[in-house]
Amino acid sequence: MAYKTIFTILTRMEGLKAHLDQVATLAETHDAHLDVLCLGVDRTQVGYYYAGANAMVLQQAISRATEESQALEAEANAVLKGAPVRYAVDTDVAQMGDLGRHVAWRARFSDLVVLPKPYGEGKGVEDEPITEAVLFEGRTPVLVLPDGAAQALTPTTPLIAWNETPEALAAIRKALPLLKRAKGVHVVVIDPPMHGPDRSDPGGMLAAWLARHGVASEIDVISKTLPRISDLIRRHATDVGADMIVMGAYGHSRFREAILGGATRHMLEEAELPVFMAH
């Protein structure tokens, strides 16, 4: 597998240039086509109008979203003009309750979606549902970029979080084009099951499979010494000098993770490295 279509979604001006510069560089590295969607979001919550929203209010909200998408389109074209990459910039408008349909339809026809971190200061209410729509409805892997200074999106020392789940294996399969370019890969296994098929060699079968793809890996078995798995993964990434984290997304239901928290949500909240996820 190779990445031949890389897709990103823009919903605001803040950080647009830095984000596009990184994504364009990634597309150039993989000789991929870059698709950019400038999405105007109608954030009006019509259900909270006491007397109901009339047609004029709705039309004004849609008009504002349309103007936003057109402004984003102009800025994106200005940033990408002259870039050594094949690209297309398109616009769309969606209401909050209908974001999933607009996002998933386009994500399905791409190999990788690159998005900003959905949580934190300055984030929009649309960021989380966009990320979830790509993963669940678009069935496409997501590379989530942290806030702050730009980081290389072609890792040299990625860290794989391995827990033998279908979600983790899906993420690793879809990350292979990135993993093959790395110098070496760390596979972290946290408290492996004592009675599992890999009990005498945790991560051994995965390492053998990666080696057949030309990916050299090192297995790191560690104990669960912190309450949250995401904190252990992040700390180990720092210890080994990793520059990207690859992991499965939402091993539990989205509802359970939203209410009780989970490795996916905590990782996306706290990550300081690019995080590659798939479901």
| Secondary-structure content class | alpha/beta
Tertiary shape: globular
Strand order of the largest sheet: 3-2-1-4-5-10-9-6-7-8
The secondary-structure element order is: EHEHEHEHEEHHEHEHEHHE
Overall tally of structural domains: 2
CATH architecture designation of the largest domain: 3-Layer(aba) Sandwich
CATH C-level class of the largest domain is: Alpha Beta
Major sheet details:
10 strands, mixed
Q: Calculate the terminal CA-CA distance, rounded to whole Å.
A: 17 Å
Structure annotation, total helices: 10
Q: Calculate Rg over CA atoms.
A: 20 Å
CATH topology of the largest domain: Rossmann fold
What does the model show?
It is a single chain. Helix 1 packs across helix 2 (55-80) and helix 8 (229-240) packs across helix 10. This protein has 2 domains: 5-145, Rossmann fold, CATH 3.40.50; 158-278, 3-Layer(aba) Sandwich (Rossmann fold). The longest helix is centred in the first third of the chain and has 26 residues, at 55-80. The protein has 279 residues and is an alpha/beta fold. It has helices at residues 16-29, 55-80, 99-107, 127-137, 166-174, 176-179, 204-212, 229-240, 254-260, 263-270, and strands at 5-10, 33-42, 87-95, 112-116, 142-145, 158-161, 185-190, 217-222, 244-248, 275-278. The chain is globular.
